[in-house]
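Researcher: Quick test of sequence recovery. Tokens follow.
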């Protein structure tokens, strides 16, 4: 009889436990708390969406990306590329179709993880900043302001750029190689190994400081302008652009284009300096982009400030914006495509959280 009481008691406790567990699961579901497995899957989907967005957007504008870097680092005493149209024609004539996409494989190998980390980091940073903002303001319904979005975007840009910087560094060197230059690097991994072996680990992070400084306004403004512009359009609905609280793909592309234009214009001089610093220490850089100008000191920089000073002194202030035109033509569709692709892929994969959430 006693054993029956124990069994009955145990069975009753087990039933109660199951009921409590079911109640807890229901509560968590109502509050939007996801199980660990679901959260990990959601993170993976978010990273995939960011990677796809980066690969698609960068491949679409690869020829302009290569021309921009060639314009940034070419010696003013040995001009080969005089503008966007002429530069693209020259590459096509001298290197063929493949020349337009030289370095794109390495670029995608860098941009896919970079974009994945950047978008995911922005989501996490914006969520954390919003949580702190609501606690400090005491307003549980508060939303991110443009300044807070700028901060979240800056955090995301710094994390993503630092994580993938060595690949960006060697991608710049591979990109400036031409048919007439000695092929020192056969690919990304060969370039990484060669730079590390011949120039040391620190060489893989040449130009990192101007990159960090430049990524704050660039990525920060991209996210801040894109999200703020979307919010404004949804709330004000000018010209009837909003349907069912959603913007069309074309409207979102336009928002991304505006964000990309503002961000890249502010940060562009730092991008020029970064590229030039990345060429320092490369023995074949003179024959690739500097012609006979190495003796003129065009590639000898001791640091970011020295690079700014020598560039402006020898070539004028306008040199800080070399390649801006092809970069503008590139950035506008690239940023727009990246944002929209990211959101579309997340919709396809069924990820509930959007960057605007």
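Model:
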């Amino acid at each position: 009889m006693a054993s029956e009481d124990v069994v009955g008691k145990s069975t009753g406790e087990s039933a109660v436990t199951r009921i409590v567990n079911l109640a807890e699961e229901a509560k968590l579901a109502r509050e939007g708390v996801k199980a660990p497995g679901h959260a990990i899957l959601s993170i993976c989907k978010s990273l995939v969406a960011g990677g796809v967005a980066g690969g698609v957007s960068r491949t679409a504008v690869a020829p302009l990306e290569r021309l921009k870097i060639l314009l940034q680092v070419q010696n003013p005493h040995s001009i080969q590329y005089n503008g966007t149209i002429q530069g693209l024609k020259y590459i096509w004539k001298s290197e063929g179709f493949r020349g337009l996409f030289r370095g794109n494989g390495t670029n995608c190998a860098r941009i896919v993880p970079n974009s994945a980390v950047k978008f995911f980091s922005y989501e996490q940073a914006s969520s954390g900043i919003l949580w702190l903002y609501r606690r400090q303001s005491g307003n549980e319904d508060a939303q991110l302001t443009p300044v807070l979005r700028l901060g979240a975007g800056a955090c995301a840009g710094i994390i993503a750029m630092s994580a993938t910087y060595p690949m960006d560094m060697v991608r710049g060197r591979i990109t400036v190689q031409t048919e007439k230059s000695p092929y020192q690097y056969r690919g990304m991994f060969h370039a990484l190994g060669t730079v590390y072996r011949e120039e040391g680990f620190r060489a893989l992070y040449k130009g990192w400081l101007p990159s960090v400084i430049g990524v704050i306004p660039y990525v920060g403004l991209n996210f801040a302008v894109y999200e703020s512009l979307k919010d404004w359009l949804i709330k004000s609905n000018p010209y009837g652009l909003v349907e069912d609280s959603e913007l069309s793909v074309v409207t979102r592309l336009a928002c991304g284009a505006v964000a990309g234009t503002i961000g890249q214009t502010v940060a562009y001089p730092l991008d020029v300096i970064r590229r030039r610093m990345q060429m320092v220490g490369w023995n074949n850089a003179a024959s690739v982009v500097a012609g006979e100008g190495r003796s003129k000191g065009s590639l000898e920089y001791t640091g970011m400030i020295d690079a700014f000073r020598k560039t402006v002194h020898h070539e004028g202030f306008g040199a800080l914006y070399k390649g801006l035109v092809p970069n503008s033509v590139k950035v506008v569709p690239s940023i727009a495509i990246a944002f929209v692709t990211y959101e579309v892929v997340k919709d396809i994969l069924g990820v509930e959280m959007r960057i605007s959430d």
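Residues 34-349 form a domain with the Mitochondrial carrier fold fold (CATH 1.50.40.10).
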